[in-house]
Structures are given as C-alpha cells and as structure tokens.
Specification:
Helix content: 40-55%
Shape: globular
Oligomer: single chain
CATH topology of the largest domain: TIM Barrel
Number of domains: 3
Strand content: 5-15%
Structural class: alpha/beta
CATH class of the largest domain: Alpha Beta
Number of strands: 11
Number of helices: 20
C-alpha cells in the first residue's frame, strides 16, 4: 500500500519526539558485567587481559575501496544511518518511511532530504534502540571514537552532528589512521568470484602496512535461476581466462579464480544459502543441469540440487587448496517485497528461519569432515540448533568449527545464550572465536570490545562457581578474543 505521493505507507510512529533535555552520556567501566561482585571482579580481571589485544577480523563486509582510496568519510548521516540495515529496520518498524531517511530507490531516484533533517529524525527516535546491540554499539562509538559526552536525543542532535562532522574532517579520522588506531591486525573483506580485486592490489602497492585480505564468495555464479546469472557467467569467463560453456569449464574457471584469490592473500571462502542441504551429483547429472541453466530452463528444484552439489564441490576444492569454507544459512532475504521492489536489497527486510543441520550436512561431513586439510565454519540464525545439532556435530567432526553468534544474535544476551548452549558439548576450541561481520567500519572496535566484555563475564561466572580456575579463564579469554580466529582462518600461516 502506498500514499498518493508514492511513499511507502506504514503504521504511524508510536513516538516521534525524543527530547529529554541535555543528559550526560556515561559509559561505566564495568558495563555488561554481572551485578554479582565475585563474577564482576573476575570478569574485570579477564577483560583487562584481553581488551588491548589486536583485533583479528577474518570475516566482514567493509568495502576495500575505503582503505584503497583512504578518503575522508562522508557526513554523519551517510556514514552512520543510511547504510545500516539494523537502524533502517527499527525505524521502519515504527513508521518512519525510508523516503524520509533519504534511502535511494531501486530505480535510482531519491527523495530530496537534508542530511541534518535525517539525523534529527534518527535522534528523536533513538529511544527505540534502548537495550539493543545497535544502541550499545553506537553509544560506545559516539563516546569513544567521536568524543561525545551527551546522550543522543532531539535536543542534542544538532550539536552532536556538528561534533562528529568536525572529527570526520580531521586527518586522524582517515580510514587507514582509524585502522591503526583500532589496532586491527588483519581485516578480511567479502568479494564476488568475478571481482578483479583492484582495490586489494592498490592497497598492496601503496606501501601501507595494513593487512587487508579478500574472501572468495561465489554466490552470484551459483544462482542459476537468478535473472542476472548469465551475465555473471560471462564475467566469470572473462576473469578466469576461459570460456564457460559446460559444467566442466565452469568448475575449472572457479578453481582458476580461487587460485587468483589465494595469490592475493585470501584464506577463506564464504557461501550463503537458505538451506544447508548437501548432496553430490554425478558428473553426467551435473553437466545436464548446467546445460539446462545455460538454456534458461532451470527451475527452483534445479537450483536446490545445484546449490547442494556446489557446496560439495566447494568443500572438495577447499580440501585441495586449503581455503577455509564458511557457510551462512538460514536467512530469507528481502522478506518484505514492497520494500525490496522499491528500494532494492539489504534494507532491513531479511528474516531468519528454522534450519536443520544433522541431515543436511551429513553428505558433506562424511565426504570431508574427517580430513585434517579441511576447515568448515558454520554459522546459524536458528539458536535452537546450537545445543541440539551444531555443538554435537562440532564436538565430533575434526573439520567443523562453529562460527560466533551471527546477525540477530550478535548481542549481549545472544552471546551468552551461545556460550551456555555450545560449550558443555563442544568446548570453546571447536569454535571460531569472534568476527565482527560488519559493513560499518567505524563500529569494528566497538563490536570486538562488546564481545570481549561478554566473554569475560561468562568466564567470570565459571570462575565464581569454581568450574574453572582463574589461570584457565585468562587463557580461554585470550583464545576467544584472539587466538581462535587466527588459528581457525589460518591467519597464523600468513607471511
């Protein structure tokens, strides 16, 4: 349903003004720690041992152009609001149209909006984010990165906007300077299989010492029923140096691209599916299916079978070339068809669904899960699968590691639920440590700090209950904050 002016019509906002006067923004040194004194004391000691460790960022979606160009960030609205789907979905749920926020439409048109007005709207609805990870992250970011000492609301919005703008104009806030300030040891981006990695080349050739690695993500060339698939295959042909006209040439072209990514420093691949179903097709069936796709006759069943087969093939390639394989299932993308048709993808309309792993991953794990050359990192949006399936699987198969709480569960309580559901069956050393999985570069340090505090608090609880001793807790804290990510993603093998 739309209004006469074409704007998306949603329910009226419950509250449209968040004034509240001038209030100080204060971050307690013991934030996120338990109120129990014994737990809080132990958590503080553990956190103090991990808080200054370098940041290892083996999976995320920061645009490498940010660090290759090293240009000044845009104004606060374009930096902090427009690209953040966590913010967009919450505001939209309370009646704030995406047009009012200046979000471009899929056809390229855009409502005329003043960034300051958008910032004011955001500030007046900031109360919506109380108790959410977005609220926690941004409060920390405002305080620690931008030096803000007032709570964001309608009254303080103009001054805070000006303060952030001023900071962003400083040479100290150029992306590479912040990379160094955050103490990032290595940052992985996510790049399509046909990407030329020109920005990664520019970073390497610039002489800057920051370590930025690509990640091989072939989803676009696997979506055989997508409208733009043939265009992706043409790009794959061009970039791999061979014409993709058969299934066999398709596989060879993927192997060529993986070799190129490895030469550019990549240590991992990434794959997004709704269902993590795995099943190997015969070479004949795979060739026939691929031919149907090239002729435009593939259907949804063909897509399901092709996805299942290509997960098997991707695992086989990882065994051979050593790249860590990441699997992100369970997100129904663009659930809100009105929003996606008007504004395009990634506007906050993605919704989790229940996901099964024991049966779906059985073929892949029986083929490669016992091979010491293979590492599979599995994420989930279905928390019910942690204790029921994923922890038992990771607690048995040598190749399987559990990724950290992802997306909707990358939160204080989500991390605690993850630890309590997984650890007693799989331990912590069958997990992959932390990754921030963010597009928002300025939030990276904040997200790592939250994870380190929550893990310190969880470990502090084990110490207070005499389940583990302080020395074990300190060793485990370091592993969760730093060591496990380096080891899982084979970053300790980089030259």
């Amino acid at each position: 349903m739309t209004q006469a002016d074409g704007n998306v019509l949603v329910k009226p906002s419950v509250g449209t003004r968040n004034r509240g006067g001038r209030q100080p923004l204060v971050l307690d040194d013991d934030r996120y720690f338990d109120s129990d004194k014994a737990i809080r004391r132990a958590a503080r000691e553990i956190y103090n041992q991990t808080r200054h460790l370098p940041l290892v960022c083996p999976h995320g979606h920061v645009d490498p152009r940010l660090l290759s160009a090293n240009l000044q960030f845009p104004e606060p609205t374009a930096l902090l609001i427009v690209p953040d789907h966590y913010i967009l979905r919450m505001l939209y749920s309370q009646g704030v149209s995406l047009e009012r926020l200046g979000i471009p439409r899929a056809d390229g048109s855009q409502a005329s909006t003043d960034p300051r007005e958008v910032w004011q709207i955001f500030a007046e609805h900031w109360y919506l984010f109380r108790g959410t990870p977005t609220g926690v992250w941004l409060d920390h970011e405002l305080y620690d990165l931008f030096g803000v000492r007032e709570t964001l609301n309608g009254d303080s919005a103009p001054d805070i906007y000006d303060q952030i703008s001023e900071r962003l104009g400083s040479p100290d806030f150029l992306p590479r300077r912040l990379f160094e300030r955050f103490n990032i040891e290595v940052l992985a981006t996510t790049d399509g299989a046909t990407d030329r990695l020109e920005d990664h080349t520019a970073i390497r050739d610039s002489g800057w010492k920051g370590r930025v690695l690509p990640t091989f993500r072939p989803d676009a060339v696997f979506r055989i029923i997508a409208p733009g698939w043939k265009t992706e295959i043409e790009k794959l042909s061009r970039e791999s140096g061979m014409e993709v006209v058969t299934y066999a040439s398709f596989i060879q072209s993927l192997e060529n691209r993986r070799a190129f990514f490895r030469a550019m420093g990549a240590t991992s691949t990434d794959h997004a599916v709704v269902e993590p179903f795995t099943e190997r097709l015969s070479d004949r069936d795979a060739e026939r299916l691929f031919a149907r796709a090239l002729s435009g006759d593939a259907d949804a069943d063909d897509q399901c079978r092709f996805d299942a087969h290509m997960l098997m093939e991707s695992a086989r390639m990882s065994v051979e070339d050593g790249m860590v394989m990441q699997l992100h299932p369970g997100a129904v993308r663009d659930h809100n068809e009105l929003v996606s048709s008007r504004f395009g993808r990634d506007k906050g309309g993605d919704i989790p669904r229940a996901t099964e792993y024991t049966g779906n991953l059985r073929a892949l794990l029986n083929a490669h899960g016992n091979d010491s050359r293979f590492t599979l990192v599995v994420f989930t949006l279905d928390e019910s699968a942690y204790a029921r399936e994923l922890a038992p699987l990771a607690g048995h198969y040598p190749a399987l590691r559990l990724g950290p709480p992802w997306w909707f569960h990358d939160s204080i309580e989500g991390m605690m639920r993850y630890r309590s559901s997984v650890t007693e069956t799989a331990g912590i050393y069958n997990t992959a440590g932390f990754n921030d999985d963010t597009r928002a570069f300025c939030s990276i340090a904040t997200r790592h700090d939250l994870s380190r505090r929550v893990d310190a608090n969880w470990l502090g609880g084990l110490v207070a209950r005499h389940i583990i001793g302080p020395s074990d807790a300190h060793e485990m804290g370091r592993a969760l904050a730093y060591d496990l990510a380096r080891e899982t993603y084979k970053l300790d093998r980089l030259p």
